[in-house]
Amino acid sequence: MPGAARAGSLDVMPSRHEADLDWLYGRERERPEPEPTRVMPAPQDRGPQRAPETPRASLGAPPAPSAPPQTPPGYPPVPAYGEGVPRRDPGFPPQGPAGPVRPGGDGGSRPPRRRRPVRTALRTLLVLVLLLVVWLVGVPAYAWSQVGRVDDTPSGRRPGEQPGETFLLVGSDSREGLSKAQQKKLGTGDVGGQRTDTIMLVYAPPTGKPVLVSLPRDSYVTIPGHGKNKINAAFAIGGPELLVQTVEQATGLRVDGYAEVGFGGFVGVIDALDGIRMCIPSAIKDRDSHLDLEKGCQTLDGTTALGYVRMRKADPRGDLGRVERQRAMLSAVAAKAASPATQLNPVRYWQLSTATASAIKVGDDTTVVDTARAGLALRTVSAGDGFTLTVPVSDPGFASPVGSAVLWDASAADDLFSQIARGDTSKLGRFAK
Q: Could you tell me which residues belong to the region Disordered (predicted)?
């Protein structure tokens, strides 16, 4: 019956309302195959033509798709069916051949993490630098804890505080700690007591160049409470205290730090540095100092270096020539001790630090900061950026009641020490020799 056929067709065909819902929610239904589109013949030029009538669809054919609903004004446009409408998929997120597809990926497996050799190298370098700093600071700190102390603070009235810092260096001829065989080898003799073979002032100004001043050991000066005598007698009579007091009264400078080294300690420091290279201006043969040196530059071991700086009789300039060699030796020691060959050599650095600690004695009030400043000043002088000089002398062979002595030039010496007391070293070059 036609009515039955129509009723059957209603069960197969979706209503227009249901088709709209399918389009909106992306649902799919089984649809019958649409009727093939009929090809209309090309229009003939027969004058005005009427629009062809749309053939009536058969009873079983689906209705033509309706136009999408119009979007009200002010709302975003609704996409056409199938355009940009996501489909519900239980496999979300989308699966690639080897796993989930990640944003920006191609669905492949996750690439391995990159190694960072640069960062590892930097960390290793940082650790090595820290270990080097600990070594360079820790070894001197340990050595400083082993340094001996002496009472060097003089009694009585002293000069007032002055700009910069003045450090007194003393080379003692004490045989303390040396056996008979060592005394014979070093040529020191077996004289008892202690005297000073070397007396130097290291001055570090607030600004400007540092200066190293030699005071000849035979300088004829006033020793407080003991009248006129050679300056090294002050050390023999009253030790470091009286020597500091004598130097302060003779120069007008306040001594801020004190250090002394004996024969054995001097040899140990030179040997710890594997010797010191010195340029000998002329051949030297001196039985008293056990020296037999050729002219020219050569490396001196500890024993030979000690004889070289102590030699006086074979030097035509006597004590003045000796203080010049002492300053040259001290500058060479400071330069080699501060060189990378020493600082970066663990064995040599350790040997030098421990040998220096056992070789020197410092004043009770001398701090590690005082010693560091003196060492820095010596390093600057050894690099040629400072002054090395001897106190001005008027008579190197003055006939005094205590024997041949060195007489200072009072006027020039006062000028020299007055400039240092003011903290001004800019004009000291004229005293250099």
A: 1-116, 149-168
* Residue 355 near residue 274 (C-beta atoms within 8 A): no
Distances (CA, A) of 79 to 19, 21, 42, 136, 251: 15, 14, 34, 76, 104
Task: Note the residue count of the chain.
Answer: 433
Tokens, residue 124 = 């290793």
For residue 269, the enclosing domain spans 133-431
366 within some domain: yes
pLDDT at 36 over 80: no
> CA 125 to CA 243: how far, in whole Å?
50
Question: Residue 419 class from Cβ within 10 Å (0-12 exposed, 13-18 middle, 19+ buried)?
Answer: middle
How many angstroms separate the CA atoms of 174 and 156, rounded? Answer: 27
Q: How far apart are CA 68 and CA 325, in angstroms?
A: 111
Asked whether the beta carbons of 300 and 290 are under 8 A apart, the reply is no
- Contact at 8 Å (CB) between 217 and 393? no
| pLDDT tens sequence across 81-90 | 555 555 555 5
Question: What is the dihedral sign for C-alpha 130, 133, 139, 141?
Answer: negative
* 380 CB neighbour count, 10 Å cutoff: 17
User: Is the confidence at residue 39, as pLDDT, over 70?
Assistant: no
Kindly tell me if the per-residue pLDDT of 305 is higher than 80. yes
pTM given for the model: 0.68
Residue 118's pLDDT is what? 80
Give pLDDT tens digits for 213-236: 999 999 999 999 999 999 999 999
- Provide the pairing of β-strand 257-261 with 360-363: antiparallel
The reported pLDDT for the residue numbered 8 is 44
61 exposure class (CB count in 10 Å sphere: 0-12, 13-18, 19+): middle
Domain contains 122 = no
78: tokens are 């609704």
Count: domains in the chain: 1
Separation of alpha carbons 379 and 387, rounded Å: 12
Domain with residue 214: its CATH number is 3.40.630.190
Nearby residues of 79 by Cβ (< 8 Å), 6 or more positions away? 85
Q: 88: number of CA atoms within 13 Å, CB side?
A: 5
- Output phi, psi for 5, to 5 deg: -60, -40
Is 254 a domain residue? yes
Q: Please state, in angstroms and rounded to a whole number, the distance separating the CA atoms of residues 359 and 178.
A: 12
In whole angstroms, what is the distance from residue 78 CA to residue 67 CA?
12
